[in-house]
Amino acid sequence: ALTGKTAVITGSNSGIGLGIARSFAAAGLNVVLNSYTDRKEDHALAEELAKAHGVDVRYIKADLAKGDEARNLIEEAGACDILVNNAGIQHVAGIDEFPTAKWDAIIAINLSSAFHTTAAALPMMRKAGWGRVINIASAHGLRASPYKSAYVAAKHGIVGMTKVVALETAQEPITANAICPGYVLTPLVEEQIPDTMKKYDMDRETAIKEVLLDRQPSKEFATTDQLGGTALFLCSDHAAQITGTTISVDGGWTAM
Ligand code: NAD
Fold it and tell me: What atom in ligand 1 is closest to the CA of residue 222?
């Protein structure tokens, strides 16, 4: 039933966003990829996905730090049956030293962009008579860690906004939910492994289990493919009454 529907996935030229895009394209969805760059590789990625799965895939550049560009992304997409708010950045510093520009950027990209895209997409979903809003929050939308004030604030914020969108659409065939991943093996996390090995003088496996996955009881990373499958489930008819809630994909992190 998803064939022919269009999904807009923010921040989808790498990592979790790209994993969700791959799962969606494989399920027959048309996909709009996005990031703030406009490189040959970005458009090549769209072509590759389209060819592999025989669906329509476009790459649209939009800097989601800017509200008008976030709204424009949805307008340019022209259709948005499924909106995945995934774009996000991180900065780690004590609150008394946290650069104001970083705070503003994290709140803008990780939280406010979802307000703008959702505002632009809801009228399209209502017109189409069906819709799914999927916000990629984090275990940090439910739990805190030191030195991540802006990230934790933005992720708790997006969990809250998800509930409001769910209530405002409760009697319509539209749902809004947040997926809360624990640690996922994306290029970003992969890059931290050699430094962690060096810093703690550990082999790869020990560095992963004892440092990176310190708070993830399963001692396994979640994968971008598992997140794609979770997002796809939220798009299915089986999930039609799941709204205003969070799904953790965190190997037990938030059970503690
Ligand atoms: P990533 O860096 O691979 O992906 C982030 C994406 O956002 C990229 O495509 C990037 O280009 C895009 N982006 C960044 N700034 C942007 C901007 N101004 N405008 C448009 N796009 C922008 O990282 P990821 O791990 O795949 O993260 C994706 C989401 O998942 C984020 O919201 C992150 O907070 C969340 N998350 C990640 C993990 C993890 O362990 N990797 C865990 C929990 C939650």
Answer: 40
**Digit-coded pLDDT (tens) for 196-213:** 999 999 999 999 999 999
For atom 33 of ligand 1, the residue with the nearest CA is 88
| Domain 6-184+222-249: CATH class, spelled out | alpha beta
Q: In what order do the strands lie in the sheet with 30-35?
A: 57-61, 30-35, 6-9, 82-85, 131-136, 174-181, 246-249
Q: What is the set of active-site residues?
A: 151
33 Cβ inside 6 Å of ligand 1? no
Give domain limits for the chain: 6-184+222-249, 185-221
Ligand 1: which of 20, 152, 156, 186 to mutate, most ligand atoms within 8 Å of CB?
Answer: 186
Share of the chain above pLDDT 70, in %: 100
**pLDDT tens-digit profile of 86-105?**
999 999 999 999 999 999 99
Helix (H, G, I), strand (E, B) or coil at 188: helix
ipTM of the complex: 0.99
